[in-house]
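Session log. Operator J.P. requested a structure for one protein chain; no other inputs attached. Running the standard single-chain path with token output.
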Amino acid sequence: MKLYYKPGACSLASHILLHEIDADFEIESVNTETSITASGQDYTKINPKKYVPALLLRQDTIITEGPAILQYLADLKSTSEMLPVVGSEARAKVIEHLTYTSSELHNAFGPLFSDASDDVAKQNAKTEVIKKLHYLDNIFSDGRNFLVNNAISIADLYLFVVCNWCNFIGIPLDKTKHVASFVSRIAQRPATQAAMKAEGLL
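Structure written below.
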């Protein structure tokens, strides 16, 4: 398998998971501005959507979209328990949180990474992100370490990556202390450290 990624982007969640399940894989970075990979390939021929991640399984089989890749990898090695069994309430809750992170929290950051956004748009985006962080902080306020059944899952990995973006765009996590503790906890995992070092983030 080969994971196409951009350092620190949402593809980091898939990268962490590959380490968590001890998979045999390669990685290749992508310049999403030029759509050229580190080896000089035209990334649009790999993923016409032009964004990361993309997971190459075989020459004719590529999976795109972070949540789909996370679910595929977790099911590939079910003994990792990164995704509860099919039909369980726990699995539904993991996918619920995964979907929220993808459709709500991740999207809320969009204007903050866009050169087309003016100061007003960026401030409005920050306000929206902070509102969502408080929602998440309330979830963790019951003392849980992870989102579902107090066991780490793919939803936690994705949430960690997106919440960690706050450190790069000037949104302090000191007013959402439970989220801050969660981010710190996932950051210290060996798989997270390995992935972040490989991407030049540590």
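Operator note: The helical segments are 11-20, 66-76, 89-108, 119-140, 154-164, 166-169, 177-187, 190-198.
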